[in-house]
Amino acid sequence: MTPPRPLADRGQTLPLYIWLTGILLFAAIAFFVFAQAASARNGAQSAADAAALAAAQDSRDELMTGLQNAVGQDGDWLKWLRGEGLKGAGASAAADRLAADNDSTVQGGAVATTVNGFPGYRVTIQTRYTVGKSIIPGTQARHARAEAVAVIQPRCTLPSDADPKKSVHLVCDGRPVDIDPEHFLPDDLPDASVLFSVHLAE
Q1: What pLDDT, in 10s, does the model give residues 103-147?
Q2: Less packed terminus of the chain by CB within 10 Å, N or C?
Q3: Burial of 158 per CB tally in 10 Å (0-12, 13-18, 19+)
Q4: Which residues touch 3 (CB under 8 Å, ≥6 apart)?
Q5: Residue boundaries of the structural domains of the chain
Q6: Are 122 and 52 in contact (CB under 8 A)?
Q7: 32-38 long-range contacts, Cβ below 8 Å, gap at least 24?
Q8: pTM (two decimals)
Q9: Are 190 and 177 in contact (CB under 8 A)?
């Protein structure tokens, strides 16, 4: 027959249970706060990525318009294929729209930059929402911030002897494209995605 446990032993385990329960509760709260912050950071980064891509896509459209006009007016259209001549007038507005769609605000507009010689835009955003209320002071009023850079990269390989006044045979990411200024129609140009890629900088 097993003798009963002394009352003193039972009394000693109670503080241990309370201590362990406190540790587990603190760990759960800390995990929740970390998850809140991670969610806010992920949302901010998604908003920054979308805004930067929107700015770059707007400028890709500008390149296509410039290319179309230059070929039609017997201008130097080859520079547009190289990604030159960008003014980016609508880039910041495009970034603002996408940031707003993601409940965020662009800080300082879409800033023109270059990555490996290619034009692009750097965008910094701040979320309109906060990290959220938690046991850590200040999180209820703290907004998440993130930054992203999007690049416009020409896909076409230009012949070294290309002449903008003559027909030019291009290879755009493996796809042949011929542009003849003397017999040019706007519909002759392929989709913008064939001539230029838009992607986030690594």
Answers
A1: 999 999 999 999 999 999 999 999 998 765 444 444 555 788 999
A2: N
A3: middle
A4: none
A5: 12-200
A6: yes
A7: 32/134, 33/134, 33/135, 33/136, 33/139, 36/131, 36/132, 36/134, 36/139, 37/131, 37/139, 37/144
A8: 0.78
A9: yes
